[in-house]
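Tip: read the tokens left to right.
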């Protein structure tokens, strides 16, 4: 059996009808009896790059022991012209996180997955120090264990003051080697005193690399920094009665 952390995360493929668009990462978040797929908002819509998928496909394990068994489910992103994902904003602007309701009927028979829950969120921001070791769980460039349908992890550290919104926006910085396809990945910190079945704190949702527009592409290497949106936005996005 794989570690529970690896079963929280699923590969996402975006489509416009039957036309393949991009690959990305998502993870499962459960609140009460409701299940959500969480990813970056720019995975489901991104106006600057003219990325407008109308459905996604998600891989889900169907056997907790034999991980070669999996099914692909298709989720529409619109119904009658209305978007079906939940997104949010605050005084710093739009937040690059989206939560998609996953109705029980959409799951394959025998679906086997692990879910983050509200208790996995970090409530006290001043308890997490700069330099804290993290993991980013995802599908960089689509790379993964294709036989067992499992993601890979990259090491990261917190690179900005965790309790201070970087540049006034709702994210913090991580130092990690990341690639396209990692968008929507959970950013987690080990929590040995928490849930023994899933001993990780969900700190953020990986969004994109952070770089300087003034960087000389020939002389200067990339900063290697990334934006991770604070995961506590999920308490707002998954609340009962949130308008879509």
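Filled-in amino acids:
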């Amino acid at each position: 059996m794989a570690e529970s952390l690896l079963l929280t995360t699923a590969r996402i493929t975006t489509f416009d009808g039957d036309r393949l668009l991009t690959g990305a990462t998502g993870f499962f978040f459960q609140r009460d009896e409701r299940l959500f797929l969480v990813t970056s908002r720019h995975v489901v819509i991104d106006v600057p790059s003219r990325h407008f998928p109308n459905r996604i496909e998600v891989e889900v394990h169907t056997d907790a022991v034999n991980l070669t068994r999996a099914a692909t489910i298709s989720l529409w992103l619109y119904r009658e012209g209305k978007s079906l994902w939940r997104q949010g904003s605050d005084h710093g602007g739009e937040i690059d996180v989206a939560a998609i309701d996953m109705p029980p009927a959409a799951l394959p028979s025998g679906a086997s997955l692990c879910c983050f829950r509200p208790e996995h969120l970090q409530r006290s921001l001043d308890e997490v120090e700069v330099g804290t070791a993290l993991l980013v769980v995802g599908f960089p460039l689509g790379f993964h264990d294709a036989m067992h349908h499992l993601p890979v992890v990259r090491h990261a550290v917190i690179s900005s003051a965790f309790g201070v919104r970087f540049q006034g926006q709702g994210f913090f910085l991580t130092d990690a080697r990341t690639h396209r396809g990692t968008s929507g990945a959970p950013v987690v910190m080990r929590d040995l005193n928490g849930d023994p079945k899933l001993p990780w704190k969900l700190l953020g949702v990986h969004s994109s690399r952070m770089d300087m527009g003034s960087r000389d592409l020939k002389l200067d290497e990339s900063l290697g920094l990334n934006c991770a949106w604070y995961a506590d936005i999920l308490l707002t996005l998954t609340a009962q009665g949130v308008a879509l």
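Helices lie at 41-44, 233-237. Residues 233-237 form the longest helix (5 residues).
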